[in-house]
Write a structure and sequence with these properties.
Elements: E1 5-9, E2 14-15, E3 21-27, E4 34-43, E5 53-59, E6 65-69, E7 72-73, E8 85-92, E9 98-105, E10 110-112, E11 117-119, E12 124-130, E13 136-144
Antiparallel strand pairs: 1-7, 1-13, 2-13, 3-8, 3-12, 4-10, 4-11, 4-13, 5-9, 5-12, 6-8
Length: about 140
């Protein structure tokens, strides 16, 4: 199934809140790894003097309660079925995990991971933010399965 390109996005602009919050989480299928080609998040803050948001990409956080989000195929003509799953907008945070990338981002800007990220079979990768003032954001994972 290698080479089937999928995308997982937030369903709408989601509030960061002002405590640590997982915005979007991608989970590879139990039987195959995925390669995240692009992980990006953007914010719609309106103050040029606002404090920066801590953005983390976290590998292997487990549990938590989020809304299910279905990835979609980028190329509709691919015959394979996307097996990855996703969650967004967590109300109970996942636990554990390892920070892969971390950056301070202005709330009028965005962040794109500097390189591809392999996500082992059954493993998760998530966007976690900590904002000093709530703003809305959108996140996206583009990956090969």
């Amino acid at each position: 199934m290698a080479g089937t390109k999928g995308t997982l996005t937030t369903s709408a602009a989601l509030s960061t809140g002002t405590t640590t919050k997982t915005i979007l989480q991608h989970t590879s299928p139990a039987s195959v790894a995925t390669v995240v080609k692009r992980a990006s998040i953007s914010f719609d803050g309106n103050s040029p003097t606002a404090n920066k948001i801590l953005v983390q990409i976290v590998r292997s956080a487990t549990g938590g309660t989020g809304t299910s989000r279905s990835p979609v195929k980028v190329n509709a003509s691919d015959s394979e079925t996307i097996q990855s799953t996703g969650k967004e907008n967590f109300s109970a945070e996942p636990s554990g995990g390892t920070v892969v990338f971390e950056e301070l981002v202005h709330p009028q800007g965005g962040y794109t991971a500097p390189e591809e990220i392999k996500v082992k079979a059954g493993e998760t990768l998530g966007f976690v933010v900590l904002a000093p003032a709530a703003v809305n954001c959108r996140a996206r994972f583009l990956y090969d399965e």
